[in-house]
Amino acid sequence: MTAGLAWLAGAGVGEGARLGLAMLLIQASIGAVNDWHDAAADGLDHPGRPVPAGLVRGRTAALAGALCGMGGLALAAGFGPAVLTVAAAGYACGLAYDLHLKPTAWAWIPFALGFALVPAFAWLAATGTLPGLYPLAALLAIPAGAALALANGAIDAAAGPGAGAAGGGPAWRLGPRRAVVVGMILHAGIVVGAGGTLAVLGRPGPGSWLGLAVAAALAAAGLAGSARPERRHRQRGWEVQALAVAVLAVAWIAGLVPAGT
After folding, report:
1. Contact at 8 Å (CB) between 33 and 43?
2. Is 0.85 surpassed by the pTM of this model?
C-alpha cells in the first residue's frame, strides 16, 4: 500500500520500493514487540505462535523488533526529517498499542492515527509536501483504522472478557456481534465517503470505480469472516478487511490524482 501510494504521487520505482520496505520493517518490528510482550498470554490463547511455542526466544523476538524498527526508521530518514518524523510517529502508535493500549477502550486510536499517517508518509517522501486533500484522506483513514482495530480484537473476543492480551479492548467491550455491526457501519461510511468525494472532486476512471467495488466486496467478505465463531475465520476476516482498506485507498487516490487534488 505504501509503495503504491508513493508511485501514485510520482515517486520512482526505487523510491517507492524503499518506502515500502521501510514500512514493512516498521510493521515487522511492531509485530515482534507484540509477540515478545504478550508471550505469557499467548501461551494460553495462541500456543502455536513462535515465542510461546518455543520456536523463538522472547529476547530474540525483542532484539528482532528493535533491529527492524531501527532499519525502518533509517530508511525513512533517507527521505528527510519530515518523513522520518511521520515514520517515528506511526511507529510510536504501534508500540503504544503493543505495550499499553491493547487491553483498553482506547485500543482503536493507534490504528486510526497510524492509518491517517500512511498517506502523509508516502506523499511527503515522493513530493516533499502534503496533498491539498490530505485532511480528507486522514478523515477517511480514521474510521478505517477503527474498523480494523475492531476486526483485530474480534479474533479473540468470543473467548470472553478478560481472557488474553487484548481483553478489555473495544471488541471485548462491544461483544463479537456488536463489534461486527460497528465495523460494518464504519466500512460502509468509508466506501460511501470515498465514492462521494471521487464523484465530486476527482476524475475517476473505470479502474477507480472497480477498485471501490472490489474493496466493498472484500470488506463484506471480511466482516462475514469476523462474524464466524471460529478463530481461524476471524483471523482471515481481519486480514481480508485490511486488504479491503488498502485496495480502497489506492483506488481512491488514483481517482483524485488526475484532477490534481
Report:
1. no
2. no
